[in-house]
Fold each of these.
Amino acid sequence: MSSREIPEFLPNHTIDPDYLVVGLSPSSKKKLFKNGTFARLLTWFNAVNMLAWDFFNIITVDNSTDISLCDENRIKTKCENRKKIIALGGTVSRVLTKYKIDHYKIDHPSPRNRNLNDKEYEKQMLIKLKEYIHGTN
């Protein structure tokens, strides 16, 4: 199990409790990779001018995809009093929907996500994300 919420390899990360990014499970990786998930996430959030945000994973076990490990009370508590909640991927979105937590789903920023091979798709996703974050959606 891991107690990490914000990966320690995010340089100079600032938390804004109004904005919550929800991931699936912690990575066992200990550093930021050039084309890795968090490198892409940082690029996206810089592009949409969301420079500070809070983060947590719905599963606390490294690299797990077993949603039976989700703790409903923990998830609901983490999501309370947030202005915007962003779900990374479909699995996270389905869990948040199951618990009736309002959120906005974006693609998971994994290098294995084939949707992101289409740069126009990624561009349109970021336009919609920016609209959501800044209230024009």
Amino acid sequence: MKKFIVLILFVLISCTKSEESSNNLLLSKIVGNWKVVGYYDDIEDSETGSNYHLVENGPVTTYKPDKTFDHIYSSTEVYYGNYSISMDSILTMNYSTTASGEPYLYKTKIFLLNDAVLEFASETSETWGMRFEKINTP
């Protein structure tokens, strides 16, 4: 019986460490400058037949190692705040500044994050998502 309890504890501790290391991997991969290059929605493009739409000169978001971010729409429109990534890949962005002057909390599910591409979708819509490409690392 003791061996069984020790085995259960070992499995639980191993799973927790594995989840923490995967979360740390997401946090390290997201650090850098990401430019919006496209978005997904439920409207099919008549020319391409796709629900993916390219964005020219998209805004840039910089995720920093200290878990802060800057979201740059233009030289006069910059928003910033703090971010976190949960164990289940939910990116939470807590905007300190917005156009309205009010703080704003935004949550989204990360579906793809590697050294070159970040894709996430709204928690409230299965048909809407954004695609970013990494443009450089701070």
